[in-house]
């Protein structure tokens, strides 16, 4: 009988060992079983649990982002989602920066025209960062921006849970200007712009669906507050149909219309029309990927806090559709 390492084997694979009657095995057979058990020296420690502070953050943000009148997500929620894009996407593979919190830590960034509309949410996210850093110094502005976006998405009815990591480093050095998409850019330019960030054309089309909850305030100041689909408080796929049908009251960005019509992306764009599950399934990994732009090693060494992001919400579509668009602005 093998005795010298039996205690180690039983420790490292207790569930399997308890199911075996080792007395029934010859030395040769037992050796074969032993070789298939993990060696104690190579077993990896369990990933650290999400710091408790993020549960508190999630609770506060859930209240902040909910419109209690109609149970839809509000302007702070849609701004938080946009902030996550802008902190990360002002980067490409040839520069430094990315998801580093500089959007709210470098005063210059929020003054840029490309970040118009984020001047209200920026200070709120910074204040939250400072509040919770006093409780847990591991909290960073970069993590707060991405975590807030994940909470905002699920507070919007039908929004999916995006895999959400913490562990980013902060920087007060402004990211390079001009690397965010222009609302009037042709589709070819947008596809190239995102390819240089490591985002594929298909991922871009999934990500642009976040305009489902968006409103415009600075592109055309004669239509301030105009939504980009007919249900701006809900995370649904109406955006994809509304971009081509252009119903009254919906503001369509020239860049979105170009992506919808481009032969490279039109099939993907149309494939999301009326298909909530397909879009959510494509959006969530693309958003997780975007939330790691500029971070060496990606999620390696980071902590997965998805479990403390609230569960997705469902509000009856009849409630959403019963309100005129302008009543939701």
Write the layout of secondary structure elements.
Elements: H1 6-12, H2 14-17, H3 27-35, H4 53-64, E1 66-67, E2 72-73, H5 75-89, H6 102-105, H7 107-111, H8 121-133, H9 141-155, E3 165-166, H10 187-195, H11 201-208, E4 215-216, E5 226-227, H12 238-245, H13 254-261, H14 266-271, H15 276-290, E6 303-304, H16 317-321
Antiparallel strand pairs: 1-2, 3-6, 4-5
Number of DSSP-assigned strands? 6
The termini sit apart by 76 Å
The SS-based structural class is mainly alpha
Which strand order does the major sheet show? 1-2
- Count of DSSP H/I helices: 16
Query: Which spans have pLDDT < 50 for at least 5 consecutive residues?
Result: 1-46, 319-329
The major pleated sheet works out as: 2 strands, antiparallel
Assess the beta-strand content as a share of residues: under 5%
Label the overall shape.
globular
- Our Rg estimate from Cα atoms comes to 24 Å
The name of the CATH topology of the largest domain is Peroxidase, domain 1
Integer average pLDDT: 85
**Topology pattern, helix = H, strand = E:** HHHHEEHHHHHEHHEEHHHHEH
**What's the CATH architecture of the largest domain?**
Orthogonal Bundle
EC number: 1.11.1.-
GO molecular function: heme binding; metal ion binding; peroxidase activity
Family: Belongs to the peroxidase family. Ligninase subfamily.
Cofactor: heme b; Ca(2+)
Question: Would you mind describing this structure in some detail?
Answer:
This protein is mainly alpha-helical and 329 residues long. It folds into two domains: 6-42, no CATH class; 53-328, Peroxidase, domain 1 (Orthogonal Bundle). The chain is 43% helix and 4% strand. It has 16 helices and six strands. The strands form three sheets. A two-stranded antiparallel ribbon has the order 1-2. The termini are far apart. The relative contact order is 0.15.
């Amino acid at each position: 009988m093998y005795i010298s390492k039996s205690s180690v084997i039983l420790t490292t694979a207790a569930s399997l060992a308890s199911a075996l009657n080792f007395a029934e095995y010859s030395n040769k057979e037992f050796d074969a079983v032993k070789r298939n058990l993990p060696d104690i020296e190579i077993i990896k420690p369990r990933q650290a649990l999400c710091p408790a502070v993020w549960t508190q953050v999630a609770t506060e943000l859930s209240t902040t982002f909910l419109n209690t009148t109609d149970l839809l997500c509000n302007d702070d929620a849609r701004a938080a989602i946009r902030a996550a894009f802008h902190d990360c996407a002002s980067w490409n593979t040839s520069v430094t920066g990315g998801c580093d919190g500089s959007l709210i830590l470098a005063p210059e960034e929020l003054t840029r025209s490309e970040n118009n509309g984020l001047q209200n949410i920026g200070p709120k996210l910074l204040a939250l960062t400072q509040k919770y850093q006093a409780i847990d110094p591991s909290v960073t502005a970069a993590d707060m921006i991405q975590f807030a976006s994940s909470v905002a998405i699920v507070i919007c009815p039908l929004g999916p849970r995006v895999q959400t990591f913490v562990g980013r480093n902060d920087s007060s050095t402004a990211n390079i200007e001009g690397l965010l998409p222009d609302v009037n850019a042709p589709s070819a330019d947008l596809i190239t712009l995102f390819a240089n960030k490591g985002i594929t054309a298909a991922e871009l089309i999934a990500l642009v669906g976040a305009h489902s909850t968006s409103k415009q305030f600075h592109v055309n100041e004669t239509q301030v507050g105009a939504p980009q689909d007919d249900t701006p408080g809900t995370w649904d796929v109406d955006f994809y149909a509304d971009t081509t049908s252009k119903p009254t009251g919906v503001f369509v960005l020239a860049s979105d219309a170009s992506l919808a019509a481009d032969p490279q992306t039109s099939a993907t764009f149309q494939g999301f029309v009326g298909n909530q599950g397909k879009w959510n399934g494509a959006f969530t990994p693309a958003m997780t990927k975007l939330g790691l732009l500029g971070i060496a090693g990606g999620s390696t060494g980071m902590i997965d806090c998805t479990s403390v992001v609230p569960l997705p919400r469902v509000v009856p579509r009849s409630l959403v559709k019963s309100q005129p668009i302008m009543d939701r602005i």
